[in-house]
Amino acid sequence: MKIRIRPSALSFSVRSFSTTFPRRSTSLPPVSTPPNAGITNLNSTRRLILLQGPDVPKFLQGITTINVPNITGNKGVYCAFLNSKGRVLFDTFLYPAAHSSLIPSSADPAFIIEADVASTPSLLTHLKRYKLRSKFTIRALEPEKFTLWATWNTLSSLPASIPKSDLGLIDQRAPNFGRRLILPQGSRPEVDADEVDGEVYRLRRYLNGIPEGQAEIIGGSALPQESCMDYMGGIDFRKGCYVGQELTIRTHHTGVVRKRILPVMLYPSSAERPQKLDYTPGLEIPELTTGADIKRVNRKGRSAGKFLARVGNVGLGLCRLEVMTDVKLSDGMEGGWKEEDEFRVERNEEDAAEEIRIKAFVPSWHMLGNTTASQNAPVSNTPLSLGGL
User: Fold this and answer.
1) Which end of the chain has less neighbouring CB within 10 Å, N or C?
2) The Cα angle at residue 206 between residues 219 and 375, in degrees rounded to 5
3) Is the separation of the CB atoms in 179 and 151 below 8 Å?
4) By the 8 A CB rule, do 127 and 102 touch?
């Protein structure tokens, strides 16, 4: 049966709440709104690992979700390492690096893995576990010698490729999201943009619904499709055998993904329910526990999702699609979504003087595969465009 797909709106803006909800202390300035063009140094949150030797492509082919032989030239990709049960261990970027003057010269294949700084020791152990007698070397690159940059520009189109001499990639996790570049320490991308703080970049990810790192794609627990890795281009379903493939491919062909990580907006119970994703600089939101349950307001029942992370009043949550959104799953089962429903983040009783409510939003680029939006979904007249080079 042919699935009808109708894009769901995900537009966002910056505004001020008219509410008595307490605002952020002036001693802690609010995170700035992401600029139209910017660059961010990612060295504080990401690390690089170099694999170099004749057996590297074959080795990576057996333990990643991407089809390594399809990586040509300097076209880096987003991918993941899974455990044998199909759970995500590490979300990563993979950069072909044999062409680069930044690494030791060799005729052998070379790849750089970019991973969350918190997971780097575990990833090194994982790589060495599967290496066995394969002929290649593994070493972590010193952050004192290299700088990883994210760059974007919403006002100009992104080139279809990066220069052949560059070590980097186009970040395709969301449409026109930007690029990543690995440069020698002390060098900056040659773009017309100001450098912004890592929190601004993180906010930009959340506004686009992009999870990243162990705090958001929880190692050993998260599933690749629930983490939207299929939508973000991190899984090649035509690929042959690799660690964790069985559950991943079975879910793709025969299963239904009922939960996904979505952008969410937090707001006080005294405020009106938001209709679009709005970042409100300076709005104070009490501390929330990662993994806290999301429940319907004034109704009992199973959890509707899990709160993951936030910058200010915008963040990410693992949401039951048929409960928190009007998305209809391909199996036709009704999940109980009602337009008037509101949701709250569970908090400890001693912290619960002010109820924190939460609303999920479905990015238009999610509307692929096994989901379709209802006819009542609002449709934005302005296409989402968040950056190129």
Assistant:
1) N
2) 105
3) yes
4) no
Cβ atoms 384, 276 nearer than 8 A: no
Size of the chain, expressed as the number of residues it contains: 389
Most distant CA pair in the chain: distance in Å?
65
Does residue 372 surpass a pLDDT of 50?
no
Q: Does domain 38-208 correspond to CATH entry 3.30.1360.120?
A: yes
248-252, long-range: CB < 8 A, 24+ apart:
248/65, 248/82, 248/86, 248/224, 251/86, 251/223, 251/225, 252/225
- What residues does each domain of the chain span? 12-34+257-373, 38-208
User: Taking a C-beta distance cutoff of 8 angstroms, is the pair 348, 235 a contact?
Assistant: no
Residues 345, 348, 353, 358, Cα dihedral to 10°? -10
- Closest by CA to 277, choosing from 389, 378, 151, is 378
Residue spans of alpha helices (H) in 181-244: 198-208
| Both structure tokens of 289 | 């526990």
pTM to 2 decimals?
A: 0.87
Structure tokens at 65: 């979700």
- For tokens 């990612």, name the residue: 42
Mean pLDDT of the chain: 85
CA-CA-CA-CA torsion sign (256, 262, 267, 272): negative
